[in-house]
């Protein structure tokens, strides 16, 4: 930390269901003092309907700062209520999940990666989230969904969300999501990585901030993918 501020999120530990819980994040902080940590994705409805048990879902130890709450959902009222309830916990950023391909999330839940097909709603959701918190907001997404995976379609998503909401930071999992036929684990390794999409976004949206995600497993790979902006 510098002069009471956190270092910019040059490196973060990605949100992972059933992994990045309170205990894992404590271990991650012992390994890295400055990495930004993410919660598991927490559905807005979980927060809204578990008001008597919020510490279980939202609690964390002070040394975990800087820490980002990742939230998912497709109901604007519940998103607003969930963010209001989370404010007391002092997260450093709120991230909206538009990348999870799980059938429970993108299928029956109609959120996660499926939301990439509805950038207008994502912009509305991000405006609602931003209106109910004082911390920065961001979106985590894939580069596409099913056969909607061209670079132009990704640009359309980024443009509509950023121009119609306060969103200025996008975390790009640089592979598409397949909503049928693959497990969540296979969706993290079978669709090919297309880092070129990420670097093209840096070129084409110079006023936005992008973070690369997907397939980066070693310190050398982190260094190779760091892009510095002045």
From TrEMBL:
Gene Ontology terms: biological process: tRNA dihydrouridine synthesis
Cofactor list: FMN
Boundaries of every DUS-like FMN-binding domain copy: 13-226
Domain of life (superkingdom): Eukaryota
Matches recorded under SUPFAM superfamilies: FMN-linked oxidoreductases (SSF51395)
Swiss-Prot/TrEMBL keywords: Flavoprotein, FMN, NADP, Oxidoreductase, RNA-binding, tRNA processing, tRNA-binding
NAD is among the record's keywords: no
GO molecular function: oxidoreductase activity; tRNA binding
Xref: NCBIfam families: PRK11815.1
Name recorded for this polypeptide: DUS-like FMN-binding domain-containing protein
């Amino acid at each position: 930390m510098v002069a009471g501020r956190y270092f910019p999120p040059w490196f973060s530990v990605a949100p992972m269901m059933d992994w990045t819980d309170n205990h894992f994040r404590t271990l991650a902080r012992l390994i890295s003092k400055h990495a930004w940590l993410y919660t598991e994705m927490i559905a807005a409805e979980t927060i809204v309907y578990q008001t008597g048990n919020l510490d279980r879902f939202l609690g964390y130890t002070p040394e975990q700062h800087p820490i980002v709450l990742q939230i998912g959902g497709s109901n604007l009222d519940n998103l607003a209520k969930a963010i209001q309830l989370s404010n007391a916990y002092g997260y450093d950023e709120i991230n909206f999940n538009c990348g999870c391909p799980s059938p429970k999330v993108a299928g029956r839940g109609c959120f996660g990666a499926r939301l990439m097909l509805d950038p207008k709603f994502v912009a509305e959701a991000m405006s609602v989230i931003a209106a109910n918190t004082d911390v920065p907001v961001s979106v985590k997404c894939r580069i596409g969904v099913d056969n909607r995976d061209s670079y132009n379609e990704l640009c359309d998503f980024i443009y509509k969300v950023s121009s119609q909401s306060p969103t200025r930071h996008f975390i790009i999992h640089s592979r598409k999501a397949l909503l049928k036929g693959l497990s969540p684990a296979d969706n993290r390794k079978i669709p090919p990585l297309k880092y070129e999409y990420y670097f093209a976004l840096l070129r084409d949206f110079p006023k936005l901030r992008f973070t690369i995600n997907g397939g980066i497993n070693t310190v050398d790979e982190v260094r190779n993918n760091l892009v510095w902006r002045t």
